[in-house]
Structure formats: structure tokens, C-alpha cells
Amino acid sequence: MSSTGHIKLRHIVPSVVTVFSICAGLTSVRMSLEGHLEVALYFILLAVFLDAADGKVARYLDSASPFGAELDTLADFFNFGIVPGLLLYNTLYVGTAHSSLGWLASLVLAVCCALRLARFNLSLKTSTVPLKQDDHFVGVPAPALACLALMPVFMHLYGWQNTDLPVLRAIYIIGVGLLAVSTIPTFSIKHAKIRRAHLPFVIVCAVVLVVCLMVYPWPTLIAANCLYLLSLPVSFLLYQRRAKAVIAAQQSGSDTGNDAAP
Fold first, then answer.
1. Is residue 4 included in any domain, yes or no?
2. What distance in Å separates the CA atoms of residue 88 and residue 44, rounded to the nearest whole number?
3. Of 149, 156, 163, which is closest to residue 102 (Cα–Cα)?
């Protein structure tokens, strides 16, 4: 902000993108209430895209601000905590004998998302709560939380409406929420490094993924969720191995220093 009280336009562009993501989440709630389930899911996916875009825009324009960070947190809580819970409840549980169980699962999902975001904000202000490292997150991030939680809806749209497992669905939703507040190291795609020799292969895979999302959205999202869940133990084991290697290197360096001391 300048001394004359004016704000440059580039400083508000990321916040505008975040506001659009909130509007996408609100529209998803409306579509869900009106029975347009597929459209509601598309708006949630749009909110995921806008959530990724606002951070990129802020870094590109060098316009990150505390106001934008707080607005982004509120948007993430609404779009990835409240909206998926409402959609799950309206689609799978409302008017059934297990409506209270479904509402409980939706509440746990929203609370876990709020706790995850609050802990993440705290990690940005202190080094005692490390929630984000160079190559991984600690716990499942909010956008991934929403996509994982909506797995039963993806399965419902894919044609598995006759599989009525309300208790199992609720346990799964609660489990996904707990993954968000866990300390499990999870892969961070935005910090992934790609070798130049592998770049053509990665581009082809990205194109195939986009085409599959357009032509076969629900089985593609189901497969993506399954792959993400399978990656959790892999990321945990790799992190543990790397941590042991770092500790061994530090101990080796300490021993070498002691041997060289007079």
C-alpha cells in the first residue's frame, strides 16, 4: 500500500481469485440442494483449481499479504470442510435411517479440516509446529481431504448406487478427516522435481489425465483417490528412511569432529 492510501491492482488479484473460489463453493451447495449432484461436484473441483491458482498468482505478481493468507484459509475451510460434508450428507444420508450417523461424519470432517488449517497457520508463525517441508506435507492437505472424502459420491455416480453401506461410508469419511490432522508425511506435488529426460513422459501423462477427467470423470477420480491413499505408506516409509539417513550423517559428523579434537 502506498503512502497516499492507494493499492495497486496486482495486490488484490489473488484475493479476487480466492473470492471466486468461495463463490464456487457456495454454488456447489446450491446445486447440491437443488439435486444437481454432478454440477455440484464440478464446482468443488473448480474451487480446488482456484485454490491452487491464487497462490501461484500471488507469487507471480509478488503480491502475497497476510490478508490474502487469512482469506485463503477461510475459503479452504468452507470449500473443503463444509461444502463436501453438506454434499455427502444431502446425497447419501438425508432422509435415511442413518441420517444422524451421516451428519456426525460430516461434522467430524469439517472439524478436522478446521484443525488442519489452524495448525498449518500456526506452523507458518513458529518452527515448533512443522507442517510443511520442502518436499512433503504433514497430514493430508485440505484440497486432497475434500477429494478423498467425496469418494463415496464418485462411486455413487459411477453406478454403485445399490451398494448400501452407510456405516462403512461414515467410518471412511471420519478416517479421511483424521488423516488431515495426523502427522503422516504426504507427498507434495508442487515441490516435486522432474528430470529433463522425463519431461515428455510427464507431459503425456498430464494430457491423458485431463482427457480422462473430461471423458470419464468419476472412475478417474476414484482411481486418483486410490493411488493417493496407496502413496501414504510409501511417503511415510521414504520419510522415515530419509530421517534415519540424516540422523546417521549427523552422528557420523559428530564422531569425526570428536576424533579430530586434540
1. no
2. 12
3. 149
Please state the pTM of the whole predicted model. Answer: 0.83
C-alpha cell read off for 243: 530421517
pLDDT tens per residue across span 219-262: 999 999 999 999 888 888 887 887 777 677 767 665 555 555 44
| Domain total of the chain | 1
Rg (CA), the chain: 21
Largest CA distance in the chain: 79
82 found inside a domain? yes
Domain that holds residue 26: 9-246
How far is the C-alpha of 75 from the C-alpha of 18, rounded, in Å? Answer: 7
> Rounded to an integer, what distance in angstroms lies between the CA atom of residue 200 and that of residue 8?
39
Residue with the three cell numbers 519431461: 199
The answer to the question of residue 151 being in a domain is: yes
In order of 81, 143, 223, 231, the CA distances from 88 in angstroms are 11, 16, 19, 24
Q: What digits encode the pLDDT tens for the residues 4-33?
A: 566 777 778 888 889 999 999 999 999 999
Measured between alpha carbons, how far is 100 from 91 in angstroms, rounded to an integer? 14
Q: For the domain that residue 61 is a member of, what is the CATH number?
A: 1.20.120.1760
Is 28 in contact with 75 (CB distance < 8 Å)?
Answer: no
pLDDT bracket for residue 125 (50, 70, 90): low
Assess if residue 72 is contained within a domain.
yes
